Amino acid sequence: MSLGTVISASRNSAGMSIDQLADATSVRPGLLREMENDNFVNCGGETYARGHLRNIAVALKVNPETFLSLYVEEQSTEHRKMQDLLTETNVLKPPKEKKNVSWKALASISLACIVIAGIAQIIISNSKTVTVERMIVKPTPTVSPSESASSVESASPSTNTEQAEAEMTGAIVVEISASRGKSWLFANDATGKTLFSGQLRLGSTRIIASDAIISLRVGNAGALDLTVNGKKMDSIGADGEVVNLSFDENS
Fold first, then answer.
1. 137 conformational bin, left if phi > 0, alpha if psi -120 to 50, beta if neither
2. Shortest CA distance to 206 belongs to which of 223, 221, 227?
3. pLDDT tens digits for 23-77?
4. Alpha helix (H) residue ranges in 127-218
5. How confident is residue 134, by pLDDT bands cut at 50, 70 and 90?
6. In principle, which of 76, 110, 111, 242 could form an S-S bond with 13, CB 3.0–4.6 Å?
7. Is residue 64 within 8 Å of 10, Cβ to Cβ?
8. Which of the two residues, 193 and 90, has the higher pLDDT score?
9. 3-88 CATH
10. What are the residue ranges spanned by the domains of the chain?
11. C-beta separation of 226 from 188 below 8 A
12. Contact 88/46 with Cβ under 8 angstroms?
């Protein structure tokens, strides 16, 4: 799904018209329509475009990073480091400026190293007794191929440590696979804590675990396959559809 499609789907899911969204964000209705058609030329530059996207996300109750990460991937023409982009969108704090080390300090350090090395050489040359510690290496017991095979077969494979620990405590484990296309995903637990927010690329899988309720909001539902506590679900929606789901310990 493109960024414009995600914005349009999120607006429809929130039950807002173009004019209502324009009133909530102070963004012109015409510019909103252009953005939903993946046209960001008239936004006034990338800085203003990111500001519009952040305001739109807040009005639609969507994590702003969902829109911003798609914008950087699809629309940004600046070849800058990801750290600079995240700093501009207030995700990271600006890095502190590195202080330049003067040549006088480097010369002092070099001189000190030379003096220390000379003193160490004098002490070593004047030493009459040298003690050498020997390390005894014990051979590692060999394992026969049959024993290795049996140990491998007896170990239970785990594709995800978090999922294994969650199943031992009886928690809820939801596996989301982007089998037929990419999609964006937003997950919360019962307290409203964000468990995951971002994009799932085609062929990727995300496992989310919680002790209580897991609430999901997904875009392009037709591209996803869900497995809840080891039980695969039927289709959760159509291509391009935004779907809200919730799972508890009885799911």
1. beta
2. 227
3. 999 999 999 999 999 999 999 999 999 999 999 999 999 999 999 999 998 886 6
4. 145-154, 161-168
5. very low
6. 242
7. no
8. 193
9. 1.10.260.40
10. 3-88, 161-247
11. no
12. no
